[in-house]
Amino acid sequence: MGVAGPEERILLALFMQSAVSEGKAISVSTLAKIINSEVSLVSNTLKSLVDQGYVALKDNNVFLTNKGLMRVLSRFS
Questions:
Q1: What per-residue confidence (pLDDT) applies to 33?
Q2: Pair 68, 55: CB distance under 8 Å
Q3: How are beta strands 61-64 and 26-27 bridged, if at all?
Q4: 34, HSE (Cβ side, Cα atoms, 13 Å)
């Protein structure tokens, strides 16, 4: 599979945390800690992922959309 880039690391972390709905969303700062990255870098990457429709942000909490979930699951098929 190779080394995952920042987008993949974020998507995989959200998947592993079961952050797949608004009710299961995790904070951006928690996500940054999980992937051992700076909050500012995670926030910038999240903007791109939101624009692509892979994640949703609500009140500084983030979760995978169905499209994001499909992207993560495609890595395993």
A1: 97
A2: yes
A3: antiparallel
A4: 18
Q: Report pLDDT digits (tens) over 46-66.
A: 999 999 999 999 999 999 999
pLDDT at 3: 60
Q: What is the mean pLDDT of the chain?
A: 94
Q: Which long-range contacts (CB under 8 A, 24 or more apart) does 62-70 make?
A: 62/14, 62/19, 62/25, 62/26, 62/27, 62/28, 62/31, 63/14, 63/19, 63/20, 63/21, 63/22, 63/24, 63/25, 63/26, 64/11, 64/14, 64/15, 64/19, 64/20, 68/11, 68/14, 69/15, 69/20
> What strand order describes the sheet that includes 55-58?
26-27, 61-64, 55-58
Q: Which residue is associated with the tokens 């910038």?
A: 44
